[in-house]
Amino acid sequence: MIDALDECRGLQRDLLEQNDHSALLRTSQCWSQVDYLKRFKLVITSQQEDRITKIFPESICVHVNIPSGSDVKPGDSASEDIRTFLKSRLEHMGMKGALIEKALDYLVPRAAGVFIWATTVASFLEQNPEGWLAILEKDDGKGLTSLHSLYSMIVEASFGHDLKVEEIRAVISVMGAVIFAKEPLDDNALIMLPEVKIPGPDADNRRLIRKGLMSVVDSGPVLRFHHQSFEDFLLSPSFPQQHSELLDI
């Protein structure tokens, strides 16, 4: 199975990743052309992009449309799956019945069938279920119907208030290092960043960073983003515009 084939190409400016993606497309195309491979099923998920659908036309494969975004309707299997997932996570957090139903009625439509949205918001709520849910519900009509809008809310809620200048610098330094290192960073690498460990006894910002980013990074000693979309968000033009107070220090 190849999940999110359209996202395997990485950043547009990274020629090495672009070449790797082209090679992956050619290799996948061989699946339908080599006799002994035809005995196996290759399952691919992807956005409908011309360069991909041309390689896998309906004449050689079966296309299954999975609705997302505005195409998702109440009661669709995607929405019901997300509702079941979120209900389980909220129950595990200790939420009670009435509040869970209220949360689900708010969150499930905004997930719009996108499972990474649901897993991210669940991890975010886990830090403070009722408090963070109240913050999400006060989005002033902006709507949290995309991953980027959810990420923006998470960054604002986690780092937008009551942080010292050196703490903000540490957060920005670590996020930038993870992006441009192009590999997960362990504590030995993080501690080399001057903004992470500042002068003074026990002055270490790694715990602050992991706590603030726990909904978008893996827990544990190695720091990596859960999903390519968070890196895309940090590099998007909207990030410095929406969070200038974090960057203008």
Explain what this protein looks like in three dimensions:
The protein has 3 domains: 5-53, no CATH class; 73-145, no CATH class; 162-247. The radius of gyration is 21 Å and the shape is globular. The protein is built from 13 helices and 2 strands, in the order ααααααααβααβααα. Strands 1-2 form a two-stranded antiparallel sheet. It is mainly alpha-helical. Helix 3 crosses helix 4 and helix 3 runs parallel beside helix 5. It has helices at residues 15-30, 50-53, 77-93, 97-111, 115-125, 129-137, 147-159, 165-181, 187-190, 206-212, 228-235, 238-242, 244-247; strands spanning 185-186, 222-223. The termini are far apart.
Q: What is the helix tally?
A: 13
Distance between the termini: 45 Å
H/E series: HHHHHHHHEHHEHHH
Q: Beta fraction of the residues?
A: under 5%
Shape: globular
In total, the number of strands is 2
Structural class: mainly alpha
- Rg, rounded, reads 21 Å
Q: Specify the helix fraction band.
A: 40-55%
Lateral arrangement of strands in the main beta sheet: 1-2
Mean pLDDT: 77
Biggest sheet layout: 2 strands, antiparallel
Q: How many structural domains can be distinguished in the coordinates?
A: 3
Poorly predicted regions are none
